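Lab meeting, item 3. Inverse folding demo.
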């Protein structure tokens, strides 16, 4: 007899059938993300929406023999696409080209995300919302403001997806240390762009890196996205690694909804950690539960250098968050 030791326990009445919607499913991230979500057995209803191309993606992934139905929707189908969703993932919007920062995407993506948030508020107000569209530091506050204005904001159900920074940190530290990345866990806190990305190497397996190696590693984690933008040479930014990151995070949110315990991921959420300093959203480890965010974890012990990095991150985050809030106030 084969025996298996469960690493997570289950609540007895946990549901295990979930509707997940992907808004922007026809894009570079949306397509592989839809594929990976089709492989998640907790997803029983996969709803793919885009301005163009979603029915084709849906027909394609629907032939994979897992226990979910897949439907693709064009613009007029957005209400139907969202109805009854437990999780809505948003990778809609334009990606970077060489030389652009994530903030350069603000003008285009802010209104896309605002309008999708309005539709979510109207048609699936109870869904967990996972924002991939950049700049995440501003698009997450945009979604919060829209939901607040419609009286349906639940801070425990809104997430900025920073998982790609976590994946990169594991990969890059393993390249420096010559280890298997599968065994490298690095907590990344702050936000999701440049200096707001703060990997806590002092809490990793490799706390004693020399200063030069440490600084180069931190810089690579903070600006790893630029490597992909440059290599794609105008054809976009990370899509495949991002799809893996998005699928992992969505999987963890579903695990939490299903009542599994000890489901912990860093995410950019409405956070109590630095609210008294004016930082309303911050990424740190979050325990996920049946209602979304269960616990926002403090950062833990930081080195003096990490304290400085976190301070710099906070200063930038305050501005990024305010920009999102102001956008919704000025363009409701
Ligand atoms: P893409 O251009 O390949 O795909 C975007 C898709 O969004 C397109 O299919 C487009 O038709 C769709 N779209 C645009 N407006 C829409 C609307 N109003 N409703 C529904 N769909 C709409 O771009 P890609 O590479 O998939 O990137 C998407 C976003 O993800 C970008 O903003 C990018 O910066 C961001 N991103 C975020 C990362 C993260 O770590 N959070 C990592 C990499 C990219």
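The presenter then showed the designed sequence:
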């Amino acid at each position: 007899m084969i025996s298996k030791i469960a690493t997570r326990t289950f609540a007895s009445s946990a549901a295990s059938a979930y509707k997940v919607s992907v808004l922007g499913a026809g894009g570079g991230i949306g397509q592989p993300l839809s594929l990976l979500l089709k492989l998640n057995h907790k997803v029983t209803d996969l709803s793919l929406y885009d301005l163009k191309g979603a029915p084709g993606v849906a027909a394609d992934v629907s032939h994979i023999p897992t226990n979910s139905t897949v439907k693709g929707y064009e613009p007029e189908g957005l209400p139907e696409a969202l109805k009854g969703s437990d999780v809505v993932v948003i990778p809609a919007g334009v990606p970077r080209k060489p030389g652009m920062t994530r903030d350069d995407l603000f003008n285009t993506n802010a209104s896309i995300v605002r309008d999708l948030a309005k539709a979510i508020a109207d048609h699936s107000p109870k869904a967990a919302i996972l924002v991939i569209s950049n700049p995440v530091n501003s698009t997450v506050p945009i979604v919060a403001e829209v939901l607040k204005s419609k009286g349906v904001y639940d801070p425990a159900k809104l997430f900025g997806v920073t998982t790609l920074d976590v994946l990169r940190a594991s990969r890059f530290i393993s390249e420096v240390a010559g280890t298997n990345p599968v065994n490298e866990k690095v907590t990344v806190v702050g936000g999701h762009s440049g200096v707001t990305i703060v990997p806590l190497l002092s809490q990793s397996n490799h706390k004693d890196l020399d200063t030069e190696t440490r600084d180069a590693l931190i810089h690579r984690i903070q600006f790893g996205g630029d490597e992909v933008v440059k290599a794609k040479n105008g054809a976009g930014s990370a899509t495949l690694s991002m799809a893996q990151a998005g699928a992992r995070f969505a999987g963890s949110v579903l695990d939490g909804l299903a009542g599994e315990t000890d489901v912990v991921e860093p995410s950019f959420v409405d956070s109590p950690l630095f609210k008294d300093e004016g930082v309303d959203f911050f990424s740190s480890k979050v325990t996920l539960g049946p209602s979304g965010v269960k616990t926002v974890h403090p950062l833990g012990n930081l080195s003096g250098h990490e304290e400085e990095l976190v301070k710099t991150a906070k200063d930038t985050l305050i501005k990024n968050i305010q920009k999102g809030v102001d956008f919704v106030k000025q363009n409701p």
